[in-house]
Design brief:
This protein has nine helices and 31 strands. By secondary structure, the chain is mainly beta. It has one domain. The structure holds MU-OXO-diiron and calcium ion (CA) (3 copies).
Length: 669
């Protein structure tokens, strides 16, 4: 049922001229423990953490007592980016009733993942945490007007922290990718048979946002992989040679994010297996139409804390992938393929992401920008070519390139790229309705480590300072000190080719609270410049998810505290807004439940069905009272998503909702 070359987001859709509007009254900004959508729309629960998605799966146990093996056949935890892959309809066109959803499961709420809620308490708990990470691939079908998960579908599949994947591209097989043989069985005994050759990795983790390819595969992006590692002993200091420098630059520490996987599974102990961390932080490609396909880590796209991966094919057939590295003062990248996309031959594109050039962005004050190639011959700001920089030195340029890709952040430091305010999602504006530029947008969600305000002088999430990366001053592209609310930047490629090495950029909008009465600490820090719709509903902050639908509407999802406290008093809950790329006008479309982040969005090819993700409702719930902050989604619909009435409601669950317009129209029309 593979509709080769048809129906994937951004290609093969109806070429409907952009009519950017949400014509209904907007969703309310108030804080409530439920999803709200505008009048005239219906949101229904589609799938939630723990729901069965493949043959042999058992229902979710609302006390979180499902085992790791059960979790490995259920929908994973804390869903994030997603994409819809339609089957071919009987009319030869992409189906709008049946297809596959690939949905990332970024991380796990250790406090409510098991009945005891104690992270890393034993191997069984660690294995469950590992099984809840990764990607959920499921078949979605509309029957009698209602969308549902096909529970026994042969397309149902889970990728977890233990799924075997292939490593490809220039860094595959490099010495830094070779790991120790240490592997344990599920009973804790030493297991053998692990491939350690640098061409194989076990698992994909911290799968944040995503992308698709025009040949119909899914790209899942590994973000905060560092947090899942740790060590029972002190890790090498930043000054302690190559390993210490890399650990420091990628934020690998003794305690990580307190998952404690390393206490049970030495694969994740940084001192037992220092190179294991090098197998994560990649963009991973998987073919959802082939349930037996082996996921592939594409090293040509670089190693960092990948947020999303938006492709563009230009008129000459060249393909670029635009990517953000989500951490304070990190960079924006693009990969440009050496080969051309072949729309007539799906298989011919299979390895297009293995060969090309990775660039990093430099935003200049005059609203121009440069793409700096991360290649052995590129001369750094110190006047030294990367091949002569001790961080990347190797026997030949092939080895130098492998090191550049494994240590991408350090290469970007060396060439003087522009440190950004946490680059999250990238999105490409559709070239329809008379608009024919290659124009890319990127959310810069926030940054409290820029400028001179009195937060710790550091570049790293764990409080250490990365070598060579002092706290930057504000600049034209990141103009706020202590950027609370974030902004969205966009750029157009020179000559409308993805191979351009220069671009023109502008700030699309600065988010904020246009109703603030706070004294002007730094006026635009608070107010922003969002063009409000007539309902005045649009103020938002911390833009994170960003996606253009095929009709030219820009959907923006937020990730802030969400409880209307402090700087968020007038903004309230997290939300999804619809913005007009021509005018900057934004209108709230959806408001999320308590303590959640709204992240992940996909549509049917006809634009009449939309899936939206809700991540971590009731964030930081306690083991003793998991319902303290949220009882969503069971509270909103009165039942768990598998239809089982469950009172009391059980634990809050990350979930995906499906949204339709009551008149059957295009979402947002
Ligand atoms: Fe996983 Fe940067 O959000
Ligand atoms: Ca995000
Ligand atoms: Ca975020
Ligand atoms: Ca969040």
């Amino acid at each position: 049922p593979v509709p080769a070359g048809l129906g994937f987001p951004g290609i093969g859709f109806e070429s409907v001229p952009a009519s950017v509007s949400v014509t209904s009254a907007p969703a309310a900004p108030a804080v409530a423990d439920r999803i709200t959508v505008p009048a005239g729309y219906t949101a229904e629960l589609f799938v939630a953490w723990g729901d069965p998605i493949m043959p042999g799966a058992v229902p979710f146990a609302s006390d979180a007592s499902n085992t790791a093996a059960e979790q490995a056949k259920q929908f994973g935890a804390h869903n994030d980016g997603m994409a819809f892959f339609p089957f071919l309809g009987t009319d030869g066109r992409p189906s709008v009733d049946r297809g596959i959803l690939a949905i990332n499961n970024e991380y796990t709420p250790e406090e409510i993942l098991t009945p005891a809620g104690i992270a890393g308490a034993n191997l069984a708990a660690v294995r469950k945490s590992q099984a809840a990470h990764g990607v959920s691939i499921l078949e979605a079908r509309r029957r009698n007007g209602k969308w549902m998960v096909v529970k026994n579908s042969v397309y149902g599949r889970r990728l977890t922290a233990n799924t075997k994947t292939r490593i490809s591209g220039p860094a595959a097989g490099h010495a830094l990718m070779k790991v120790n043989e240490y592997l344990i069985s599920d009973t804790g005994s030493h297991a053998t048979g692990r491939l350690t050759d640098g061409y194989t990795a076990y698992g994909t983790i911290n799968n944040c946002a995503n992308g698709v390819t025009p040949w119909g595969t899914y790209l899942t992006c590994e973000e905060n992989f560092n947090g899942n590692f740790g060590s029972n002993t002190a890790v090498p200091a930043p000054t302690a040679g190559e390993v210490g420098k890399m650990f420091n630059r990628y934020g690998l520490t003794k305690d990580g994010f307190n998952y404690k996987w390393h206490t049970q599974d030495p694969r994740f102990d940084l001192n037992v297996n220092p190179n294991e961390a090098n197998l994560f932080g990649w963009v991973v490609e998987v073919d959802p139409y082939d349930p037996k396909s082996v996921p592939v880590k594409r090293t040509a796209l670089g190693r960092f804390k990948h947020e999303s991966a938006q492709y563009v094919v230009d008129a000459q057939g060249h393909l670029a992938v635009y990517m953000g590295d989500d951490e304070r003062n990190e960079y924006i990248y693009k990969f440009v393929s050496a080969g051309k996309f072949n729309p007539a031959d799906r298989v011919a594109n299979r390895n297009l992401l293995d060969d090309g050039v990775l660039y990093v962005a430099k935003f200049d004050a005059d609203l121009s920008g440069q793409w700096l190639p991360l290649l052995p011959g590129t001369v750094g700001v110190d006047g030294v070519a990367l091949r002569d920089n001790p961080n990347f030195a190797g026997a030949n340029d092939a080895e130098v390139l492998a090191k550049i890709l494994i240590k991408t952040r350090m290469a970007a430091d060396a060439v003087g790229a522009t440190m950004m305010d946490r680059p999250e999602w990238t999105g490409a504006r559709p070239r329809i309705g008379g608009f024919n530029k290659i124009e890319i947008y990127c959310t810069l969600t926030n940054n409290n480590r820029r400028g001179s305000s009195a937060t710790p002088s550091s570049n790293k999430a764990d409080g250490t300072t990365a070598a060579g990366s002092a706290r930057p001053a504000v600049d034209a592209a990141n103009p706020r000190e202590d950027n609370i609310y974030g902004h969205i930047i966009r750029w157009q490629e020179t000559g409308d080719t993805v191979k351009a090495t220069t671009f023109a950029w502008s700030l699309f909008l600065q988010a904020g609270d246009t109703k603030t009465t706070k004294p002007a600490k730094a006026t635009n820090n608070y107010k922003g410049n969002i063009v409000a719709d007539p309902y005045g509903s649009a103020d938002f902050g911390a833009p994170d998810g960003l996606w253009f639908d095929p009709f030219g509407r820009l959907w923006v999802q937020t990730d802030q505290i969400g409880d209307a406290s402090g700087d968020w008093k007038n903004i309230g809950a997290n939300c999804m807004v619809c913005a007009d790329p021509n005018t900057g006008m934004a209108r709230r479309f959806l408001t999320g439940p308590n303590g959640c982040e709204v992240t992940g969005i996909a549509m049917c090819p006809d634009g009449k069905t939309m899936w939206v993700g809700v991540q971590h409702p009731g964030e930081d719930a306690t083991p003793s009272n998991p319902e303290l902050k949220s009882r969503w989604p069971a509270n909103q619909w009165g039942v768990e998503s598998d239809g089982v009435t469950s009172l009391p409601f059980g634990r809050p669950r990350s979930a995906v909702v499906v949204i339709t317009k009551d008149d059957g129209g295009v979402i947002g029309s």
